[in-house]
Write a structure and sequence with these properties.
single chain, mainly alpha, Growth Hormone, Chain: A
């Protein structure tokens, strides 16, 4: 009954959050414009963007047709991007779906849990800004694009391992703090995973590679949801938390190994 009342009490918040998503969609449709027709950029900025695009295409693209899936899957960096999301997104959905239940399993009643339940989710919002901001800051200071992205990926992979210490504490705010660091790190990592396709691939292939990584994330989440339910029912949450810490670390290693600076030229010509 405790969990029923916990989630029941949050139903208005779920409705409001879902409605805000539709409002944001409408706002995005009204406010988004491609550079060619954007009303809020200067003519000089528009010319710079379009000239840079033309120069890039002339320098790196040897053909204009869209690359085939089979060609893209032959590239190691494609698998690095797929791994980045497949091995991190399931952890996020585990936290969003199971965090409240995990607190209850630690002996924290739903009323107490409300005091800190929101902390990891606010931390994730901040992590999105942090990941993009830090990588841009590094690029401005002379780092290559790929090196700057990888630096944030390393931070994200290491930060998510802090889910492991949660198995050793039952303190509400210690749990919230450790989960918050992990979600902050996840969001930073995830931001890099989302932007890497546009860093590495020509425009005609970005959506395809992004779709592949999204498919991997979806399949990983479906499989992990089943496994989390099974393991929590038959054993405990401890193996789940340890696995949820180590799997993104493996994703970090794969990104570092499979995505290299010379990949950029290779993918542009694929």
């Amino acid at each position: 009954m405790g969990l029923y009342h916990f989630f029941g009490g949050w139903r208005p918040a779920f409705v409001i959050t879902g409605t805000l998503g539709f409002l944001w969609l409408g706002a995005w449709r009204m406010l988004y414009h491609p550079p060619e027709s954007h009303p809020r950029i200067s003519d000089a900025e528009r010319e710079m963007i379009l000239n840079d695009r033309v120069e890039f295409e002339e320098t790196h693209e040897t053909k204009t047709e869209k690359s085939k899936w089979s060609d893209l899957l032959k590239l190691p960096q494609t698998w690095g991007i797929i791994a980045a999301r497949t091995l991190t997104d399931p952890v996020w959905f585990f936290i969003t779906d199971w965090f409240a239940i995990y607190l209850v399993s630690k002996g924290i009643n739903p009323e107490q849990g409300l005091l800190a339940f929101w902390i990891p989710f606010v931390a994730a919002d901040l992590g999105n800004f942090f990941g993009g901001g830090v990588s841009s800051w590094l690029i401005k200071r002379g780092w290559t694009v790929i090196s700057a992205r990888k630096a944030v990926v390393i931070f994200g992979g290491l930060g998510m391992t802090l889910l492991i210490p949660t198995v050793f504490t039952s303190s509400l705010f210690s749990l919230a703090g450790l989960f918050a660091i992990s979600t902050f790190a996840y969001a930073s990592f995830s931001t890099m995973a989302l932007v890497l396709p546009s860093d590495l691939y020509r425009s005609s292939s970005v959506a395809t590679v992004s779709g592949m990584s999204g498919t991997g994330a979806g399949l990983g989440t479906i499989i992990s949801t089943y496994l989390i339910g099974y393991v929590s029912d038959h054993y405990s949450f401890e193996p789940i938390l340890i696995t949820a810490s180590l799997v993104p670390f493996v994703g970090m290693i794969l990104v570092l190994v499979l995505i290299r600076p010379d990949n950029r030229q290779q993918t542009r010509e694929a």
